[in-house]
Amino acid sequence: VAASAISRMSFEVRDAWTGTWLAREMDCFGDPSGWSVEKCSVAGTAGGVAGLVGDSQAASLSGVVEDGVAPRTLSMVTQPGCAFFGPVAASGCEAATEAARQYLNQIAPAVVVIANAATRYMWDGQLIPRSEEAGGGLPDAPEERRETYVDAYVRTVESLVEDGRRVVVLLEVPTMTFSKRVSLLRPNPAPRTTPLADQVDRNEIARMLVERLAGDDRVSVVDPAPILCPGGRCSPIIGGEWAYMEASHLNPHGASLLADVIGDAIETQFARAGG
Q1: CA–CA separation, 14 vs 192, rounded Å?
Q2: Using N-to-C axis directions, what is the helix angle for 200-213 and 142-162, rounded to 10°?
């Protein structure tokens, strides 16, 4: 009887944790052997080229980055679980990171947009120094792990700037908490509102990157936290709509909430680059 009744009900099952990312649609999210300028570029009608690199954070924001770059050309390569920086790399990511570097050399962008996760690389075994001199692993203390991450990120940005690029750094989005259990009678997962202040690793890394990269007009840093956690409170539902696919990745609607701040940062760096 219940099954029969439910089959006649009209309701929308809101799937909070699915969505389409431009980088995934273009097959430029993963497998570096398949990357090519032709496949991984959205051609614009105006001069100027931007490159988007990073891990799944970059992929999840690829659509709004493309909007911010338009009408110029955006060329993107992204790798799940592989942040774009060095000399520290996520375990098993050395080849993908090097392929992304070579790709940037090939497209020679005026502006490079980087979006990396942060907190996932604080886990044991996720982040490894490339050199023996670095000690063979991350430090035990959380503060030193953050410093290792931030040092690697800053050196990467500095190397791009030294090569004549302008850089836009998109900081990690805050992590959300909600249940993925779905009931036929109550199809939407129940969201939880949590304090942004509880995300210590994320917030400290963001603070350190902003501090370290401040004062260089060739670099813009975008922090999505004020938009995604207004008043310091975080919920995966913003303005009555789901903004997250799951705990740490925005869906297309959530990404669109950052369109103005990301677009402004990209436009600022193109203007400073003379294009």
Answers
A1: 16
A2: 40
**Cα dihedral value 269, 217, 154, 221, nearest 10:** -60
The pLDDT tens digits for 159-179 are: 999 999 999 999 999 998 865
* DSSP for residue 29: B
Q: Which residue has the tokens 């997250």?
A: 244
Phi, psi of 28 (to 5 degrees): -120, 30
Contact 77, 28 (CB under 8 A): yes
d(CA 74, CA 87) in angstroms, rounded, equals: 26
Q: For 213-249, how does the pLDDT look when each residue is reduced to its tens digit (9 = 90+)? A: 999 999 999 999 999 999 999 998 898 888 988 889 9
What is the C-alpha separation between 26 and 108, in angstroms, rounded? 20
CA angle 136-142-148, nearest 5°? 50
Q: How far does the chain reach from its first CA to its final CA, in angstroms?
A: 66
Amino acid at 271: A
SS3 at position 258: coil
What does the alpha-carbon distance between residue 262 and residue 258 come to, in Å, rounded to a whole number?
A: 6
C-alpha 25/C-alpha 113 separation (Å) is 19
DSSP 37-85: TTTTEE--SSS-EEEEEESHHHHHTHHHHHHHHTTSEEEEEE-TT--S-
By residue count, the chain amounts to: 275
Q: Which of 250, 208, 201, 252 is nearest to 229 (CA)?
A: 250
